[in-house]
Write a structure and sequence with these properties.
alpha+beta; disordered N terminus; 92 residues
Amino acid sequence: MVHEVYMSTVMTLSDAKARLSELVRGVRTRGEDAVITVDGEPAVRLVAVNAGPRSLTVAEAAGYRALMASLPRIQRPNSEFNAVDLVREGRR
């Protein structure tokens, strides 16, 4: 039984033993970690050795480009921003 939770793969010990090669390759290529459970409780976490920054997926890169392209369209107030005045006016 495999579950995706918080960017982690959660797998029972028996499933991890049966699919260890697949599990290791997945952790290494996706840059995510895997949690192996024993008797329903998290027991160990498997992380890639080079668990540093990873490359963006195609979908993440497209989302980032769309966000950056939309920034110039954001309307900004003409006056200087003053948080104290906004709080006094009852705004958030």
